[in-house]
Structures are given as C-alpha cells and as structure tokens.
From TrEMBL:
Alphabetical list of SUPFAM superfamilies matching this protein: CheY-like, Homeodomain-like, P-loop containing nucleoside triphosphate hydrolases
Compositional bias (Pro residues): 397-411
Sigma-54 factor interaction domain location: 146-375
InterPro entries: AAA+_ATPase, AAA_lid_NorR, CheY-like_superfamily, Homeodomain-like_sf, HTH_Fis, P-loop_NTPase, Sig_transdc_resp-reg_receiver, Sigma_54_int
GO molecular function: ATP binding; sequence-specific DNA binding
UniProt name for this protein: Sigma-54 dependent DNA-binding response regulator
Keyword ATP-binding: yes
CDD domains: AAA
Organism of derivation: Corallococcus coralloides (strain ATCC 25202 / DSM 2259 / NBRC 100086 / M2) (Myxococcus coralloides)
Record-linked Pfam families: AAA_lid_14 (PF25601), HTH_8 (PF02954), Response_reg (PF00072), Sigma54_activat (PF00158)
Superkingdom of this protein's organism: Bacteria
Keyword tags: ATP-binding, DNA-binding, Nucleotide-binding, Phosphoprotein, Transcription, Transcription regulation, Two-component regulatory system
GO biological process: phosphorelay signal transduction system; regulation of DNA-templated transcription
Name of encoding gene: frgC
Amino acid sequence: MSEALKGHVLVVDDDPALLKVLGALLTQAGLTPHPASNAKDALALLARRPIDVVLSDVRMPGMSGMELLAEVGRGWPDVPVLLMTAHGTVPLAVEAMKAGAADFVLKPFDREELLFSLKKALLHASQDPEPTRGTGKAPDGLDSLLMGQSRAMTEVKALLVKAAQGTATVLLRGESGTGKELAARALHENSPRRTGPFVKLHCAALPDTLLESELFGYEKGAFTGAATRKPGRVELAHGGTLFLDEIGDVSPAVQVKLLRVLQEREFERLGGTQTVKIDVRFIAATHQSLEDGVRRGTFREDLFYRLNVVPLWLPTLRERPEDIASLSRHFLDVHARTNGRPPFTLSEDGLRALQAQPWPGNVRQLQNFLERLVVLSDGPVLTGEDVARELSRQPGLAPPPVAAPLPPSPSDPVTLESRRKDVEKEALVDALKRSGDNRTLAARLLGVSRRTLYNKLEEHGLL
C-alpha cells in the first residue's frame, strides 16, 4: 500500500508474538498501534484515550472478540471494529457483520490485505456518523425503533408495516438525522426476513474502488492485497436485507453494476468469472433529490426507477414537535444510564424551550443535545434555564450573545478569521475542561468525530 495511513489502532490478541508483529507492521504503515493482550485491557485503554480502529482476534480467553465487539458498540459506537480469525467462513462473516463488525481478516493475514481493510475502516471513521448512541441493538417493534405518536409518524409506521411484508425495494428519503437507518432496520425486523442478516453499507464513506469491492467482494489476486477470496456485502446479505445508505453518492460506474444486481439478482466478484445468485431485499436511503440527479445526468434514470418502487419519506422533527416530549424522555433515560448519572426529568418550561427550536439536524441533533445536558447539568430536573444555557453554546440553535465591538487597532487588526479561531479555541478548551480531558467525551460535547477533534486540537496547539 503506497500511501501512508494515519490513525490510532487498538490491537487485541492474546499472542504476544503476533502483537509485536502487528505493531511493527502498523508502525511501518504510518499508524500508531496500541497493544492489549485481552479484552479487559482493551476496554480500559479505550476509556483512557481516543482510538480510531479496533483490530481484535475472535478467539481469546475470557471475553471473546465478538463480546468485545458488543462492548465497543455500546460504549464507543463510532469506533469501527475489525475481527481477525483463523476460521474464516461466510457464516462467521455474516454473524460478525450482523453484530456490527466493520470487516474481518483471515489468519494468517496478508500485509496488503490487512492494510486495505484498515484503510476502509479509517475512511468510515473519518465520516461523521449517524449513530443510535448508547442504545445498543434495537429491539423488535416499530414503536421501539421509531418513537413518536404524531400524525406524521403514525402514517410512516403504517406504511412501513405494509412495505415490510413484501420483497419490493424501498427508497427511504428525508433530511439527515430523521432516522432513515432506524426505518431500514424496522423494515427488516418486521419482515419475514427478520431471521436473516441485516447488512448495511454507507455508500458516501468510500471511494469507487473500495465501494465496489465492499459491495461485490473479490477473488484472490483481483488486486494488490487480495490474498484470499472475500465475500462482499451483497453476498453476506443473502437471505436477508441489504441497506445502502446515501445511495445518491454512488458514481455512474457503480450504478451500472447495482442496476444489474437489482434487475437480475446476480453478480460477479471482482476478478472473478463465476456468476453468484443472491436472494436479497434491498433498501436504499438518501437525503438528496435523486430526480435532480437524473436531470443533471449524475444519476441513472433506470436505476432511480428500480430503487423508487416503494418510496417512504421520513418527516423532519420540526414537522412533529409533539414528539419531542417522548423522544426527550427516552434520550434522557438512555444517556443518564450510559454516562453513569442519576435519572433526569424535564420541566414544562424546559420542554417548551426544546419544542421552540427548529432542530435542523432533526432527531440526531436533539439526541446529542440532550446527552450534553445530561453530562453538564447538575440535575435531577432540567429547566428552561438549563436548556437556554446549553443552547447559547450551540451554534445554529440560539443566537450567541452580542459582544461589544472592539475598538479598531491598526497594529492588531481584528479579522473574521482570527475571531473565528479564537472562539473555536475557547470552545475546545471549555469542552476539555468539562470532560475532565476525556477526548472521546469532549468530541461528543462538541458534536464532532474524534478525528475532527484531534485535527482541531493540533491546529490550535492544544495537543
């Protein structure tokens, strides 16, 4: 792999020799390895410092790699986990993907293939995620997956129940943060395919070359680093559901291959000649206007019609303000538990303050805001004053206090850029102070990924 990689990789294996080999390999590639000989030490290390990717063996004494995967998903949902195994099979891969693994690597591993998988994971980690933070695996049932009793949500749930019973392709549409991934999971969990795998792929997170291999898999020798045959997400979803998020970002070249899969239910792996037949239910999602893409020539019209068999629109939060009360109670309970805080309740004036906001980031933004309230408030009752205090610190929700204009000074000009940097640095320092210098928590408080936080800390000389 020619280009240098950057990032912190937590390597978990009970074999000291393998830890040493992996550490040298990752260091040579430009990565920073952090070794742990068991899952317990790995979790302790995750709590102390930010990690970009976890690379763990499956079979270890004590807590296994699959159990570690579940713990990482609960405590650090935006950290991708790669599993290593000497017993690589498609059923094991399906089980790992269903449990939330980003990828799996076969032992004995090939250097280029391992770095290839790490590169994909780092690309995913660099995206701002759309997590269901702290909730763990969503339980069955529409009401537990898609909360809200407003008329808009009631209509969506009724359509989901009807669509779930068939096999037609569903296109989920709506603004970012409206819960399209939860709707996709609700479709799967309420369908006859609920016992099969639910496999998801964020199409915007990968460039064409990686996206194609992720979708269709590859044969040994298909490209540098392809040391063994590897199934793609389409193959892993056989008998279940494949969720393609941000389908509007797929390039025309990949669109052609997706169209064939949707039409013929067959494909070839990269570098292969054998046609693979699949039984997969497709669900796609986008916040973009695919009709505009068709008019501009960036999205194939025939693919659009193949995807748009059953279109479902997810309402924005501003279209259903009456659901803010139930959503807030749910998120306050979840975040109090995950952050080790006592239960919180919301006063009437606090709820009115939340309902008065436009929430351009929809449910995701409300969820992150409430987690911030849980972490930073004394409790147990969150008042309108508490909400107003945190709103004033969050750009885009409440206007910041107007500062008195500084007198002009030719020797020290005040530019917009310099003022922006001052405010940004102040926000970083405040978040680090409030989180007790816990970088993961600081990133959550600021509403950014850990990678973005570290870039900003380095930019402002705070590392």
